[in-house]
Amino acid sequence: MTDWDTEEWTSGAKRLLEWVSTVDSDRPVMLMVRHSHREKLHNHHDTMNAGLTDLGKRVSREMGYRIPTDRKAHIFLSVVPRCYETAQALSDGFIHQGGEVIDMDPLPTLIGPEYSDRDVWLNLNSNGENVTEFVNMWADDEFEGIEPFNEFSVRLIDDTVRRFLALKNNMMHIHVTHDLALMCTKRILFGRPLTRDDREPFLAGLGISIQDKTPILFVSSTQNRIDLTGF
């Protein structure tokens, strides 16, 4: 038995990889996942600097072992240490199993929005327990000193989903990010306010494929068409 088998929080990542295995290998796939098990965050400094625990590194690599290798992978990541370390471990495991990673590129949008007032982050618990409420309040223009949600949404979708939809081959795009950017993506694609149940455990997230030129979103064992009207 490995950590992948025994840690309960790997259930979301397992569902995501089970879904990938069902997508025809000639179709591209996009994954957006939360980083792996991290050090505890106590303040804003930790939020920008904390890395993974040893457990987080091991499980990230184990997940990489299990990603199907029938597509080449292009990995995009937040450069915050826990995301970089997750991306590197995923890449190591994927390559060990015979997969090919064509590149690993930092993507600033995956860190989060721009802001002019550091105090805006006082509204977000350092360990992210209220991240869904924070995103909802931000989307409702309840905060000042932070990039407007609608503006960030356009950048986020352009840099991730639209880039993926422009692919002409069966590439796999893997995005390694944080609670915040992942929850923003869910709020955009769901077209509704988030609930606490929408928050993902470590290494879980969402997947997108393309079927008959239509983007299909996979989240929590369900699939739905994506409507990008307005983005």
Describe what this molecule looks like in 3D.
It is a single chain. By secondary structure, the chain is α/β, with parallel strands linked by helices. The protein has a single domain, classed as Phosphoglycerate mutase-like (Rossmann fold). Helix content is 39%, strand content 17%. It contains 8 helices and 7 strands, in the order ααβααβαβααβαβββ. It has a 7-stranded mixed β-sheet with strand order 3-2-4-1-5-6-7, with helices on both faces. Strand 5 (205-211) and strand 6 (214-219) form a beta hairpin. Helix 4 packs parallel to helix 5 and helix 6 packs across helix 8 (179-190). The longest helix has 17 residues, at 149-165. The protein is globular and about 45 Å long. The N and C termini lie far apart (44 Å). The model has no long low-confidence stretch (mean pLDDT 94).
Descriptive labels:
alpha/beta; 8 helices; Rossmann fold; 231 residues; seven-stranded mixed sheet
